[in-house]
Recover the amino acids of this structure.
């Protein structure tokens, strides 16, 4: 038998109970109606008959009164006709008396009727005059008695009808209570029986539910198969699934163990410390190099903040994890300047932290942090910077002498020059100036990276700074057929604590680049705005734009975007980045090919007026 059939059958007691209640209610209502109709029918018939009799008496007495007044009335014929009606109705009432005392009243009514008829005969036979009036008086006295008796019988039946109606109402109330109690008991019994049947039918499903919970806990249980219905089929399939899951779990555990061993061996083989944390910053694993490098650490399960890391590593790790766990993406350093020094037993070691989030089914599950040892690379960079600085410094003196010699020759201090010689000296002077700019940029970068550049922090009025930069390059833009626009009305009023000379160099480099790549007829816009306590300066151009894949690299040294013309050395934007970051700010670019570029940098500590 199918489970659906069993479940429908379990509701059969309720259906039977409802059917029985309905049938009982119909029978009770029908019986009550018949009982009430039977009780009231006889009294109602008697009242109708008595009213008919009263009407006969009224009509007969009225005819007698008209006969007394002298009108020709066939009183004898009328008496005969009305007497038949009265006697017929009297016979019907007397045939089925319904109330106690009604028989005595009917007997008196019959006697009074007969006396009234006798007086009516005497009235008809009496001679006109005193005899006739006396006969009518006697007949009228009989008439009053007859009317009173008829009224008493009618009153008796009416009172009986009211009393029987009250009895029927009380009986209906008792039947209503009986039906309510019977209905409640029947439905309650049917529900209890149906509930027991349903629980009995669903007991295998409860066993299956407990078995599923145990399977979820890793216990390979089996359930008994006690029927051939859908539950029995489900039980058989569950047993098969449980066996397969147990087998798969064993295989998965073995594969997981192998994967864990492989992952452990992989991270242990890495030459740099590797940390794995969960979504709340608790340490899950640290590789062999990390354990050896940082010494004895608290057991996994403690948060990174609670551990005693060397130097400033604790605060830096907390900052990196806050960035990752807040959903901002991977932490990827952009330069070796972000390396941090850590005092270790072998000496001060520089590490560059890279971190990537670990994503799970429900979002961020943790993060992996790699501490790359960049001490050797940093020493190489220091040697390179020292070499570049030394070479640049040694080039400054001969470049100055060369530039002076070209200048003297060009102005005829050593003799007159022809046109060809003048053009050659002009080209040599421009190349000498370009080389001088490169040397100056190299020296600036070298000083900033080595920490030998002393930044002069002082209040700088941002409006004056932008105005000076605009005046310095506005004529150059005009001579080249371009327009340099300063958005004076939107400039914020206030000061920022910074090195004004270096910020002027940043603005000059950004505006010069914008003019260089905008071309004749182009437009460059210079503006600034306040974002909370930070100052944002923007330089927008109408140039060819920068492809997205090169937008992060344009701030590297000597990098130039392929396919875009220009005579720059690739050092200007690198110098700008070093200066801005030395102020604690940020620099970037927003650009789309064919739609121009917007270079911007932000500085903290803006004091708005």
């Amino acid at each position: 038998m199918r489970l659906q059939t069993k479940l429908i059958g379990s509701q059969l007691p309720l259906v039977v109970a409802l059917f029985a209640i309905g049938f009982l209610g119909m029978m009770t209502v029908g019986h009550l109606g018949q009982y009430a109709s039977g009780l009231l029918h006889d009294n109602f018939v008697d009242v109708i008959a008595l009213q008919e009799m009263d009407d006969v008496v009224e009509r007969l007495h009225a005819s007698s009164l008209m006969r007394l007044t002298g009108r020709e009335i066939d009183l004898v014929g009328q008496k005969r006709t009305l007497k038949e009606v009265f006697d017929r109705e009297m016979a019907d009432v007397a045939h089925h008396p319904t109330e106690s005392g009604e028989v005595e009243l009917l007997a008196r009514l019959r006697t009074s009727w007969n006396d009234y008829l006798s007086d009516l005969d005497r009235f008809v036979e009496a001679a006109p005059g005193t005899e006739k009036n006396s006969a009518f008086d006697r007949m009228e006295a009989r008439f009053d008695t007859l009317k009173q008796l008829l009224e008493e019988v009618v009153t008796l039946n009416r009172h009986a009808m009211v009393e029987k109606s009250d009895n029927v109402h009380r009986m209906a109330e008792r039947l209503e209570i009986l039906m309510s109690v019977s209905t409640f008991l029947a439905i309650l019994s049917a529900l209890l029986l149906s509930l027991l049947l349903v629980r009995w039918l669903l007991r295998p499903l409860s066993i299956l539910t407990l078995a599923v919970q145990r399977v979820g806990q890793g216990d390979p249980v089996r359930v008994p198969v006690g029927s051939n219905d859908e539950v029995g089929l489900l039980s058989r399939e569950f047993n098969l699934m449980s066996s397969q899951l147990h087998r798969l779990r064993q295989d998965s555990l073995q594969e997981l163990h192998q994967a864990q061993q492989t992952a452990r061996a992989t991270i242990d083989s890495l030459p740099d410390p590797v940390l794995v944390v969960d979504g709340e910053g608790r340490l899950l694993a640290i590789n062999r190099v990390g354990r050896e490098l940082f010494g004895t650490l608290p057991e996994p399960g403690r948060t990174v903040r609670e551990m005693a890391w060397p130097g400033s590593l604790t605060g830096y790790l907390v900052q990196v994890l806050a960035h990752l766990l807040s959903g901002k993406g991977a932490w990827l350093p952009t330069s070796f300047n972000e390396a941090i020094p850590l005092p270790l037993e072998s000496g001060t070691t520089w590490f560059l932290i890279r971190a990537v989030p670990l994503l799970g089914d429900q979002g961020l599950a943790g993060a992996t942090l790699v501490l790359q040892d960049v001490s050797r690379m940093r020493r190489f960079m220091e040697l390179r910077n020292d070499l570049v600085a030394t070479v640049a410094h040694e080039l400054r003196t001969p470049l100055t002498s060369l530039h002076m010699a070209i200048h003297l020759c060009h102005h005829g201090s050593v003799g007159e020059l022809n046109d060809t010689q003048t053009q050659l000296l002009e080209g040599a002077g421009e190349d000498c100036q370009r080389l001088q700019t490169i040397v100056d940029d190299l020296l600036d970068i070298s000083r900033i990276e080595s920490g030998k550049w002393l930044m002069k922090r002082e209040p700088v009025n941002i409006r004056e700074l932008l105005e000076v930069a605009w005046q310095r390059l506005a004529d150059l833009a005009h001579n080249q057929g371009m327009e340099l626009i300063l958005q004076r009305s939107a400039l914020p009023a206030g000061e920022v604590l910074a090195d004004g000379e270096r910020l002027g160099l940043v603005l000059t480099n950004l505006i010069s680049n914008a003019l260089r790549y905008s071309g004749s007829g182009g437009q460059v816009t210079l503006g600034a705005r306040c974002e909370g306590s930070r100052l944002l300066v923007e330089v927008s151009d109408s140039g060819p734009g920068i492809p997205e894949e090169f937008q992060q690299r344009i701030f590297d040294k000597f990098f130039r975007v392929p396919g875009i013309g220009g005579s720059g050395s690739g050092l200007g934007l690198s110098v700008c980045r070093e200066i801005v970051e030395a102020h604690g700010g940020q620099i970037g670019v927003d650009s789309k090919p064919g739609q121009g570029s917007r270079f911007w940098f932000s500085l903290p500590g803006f004091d708005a007026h």
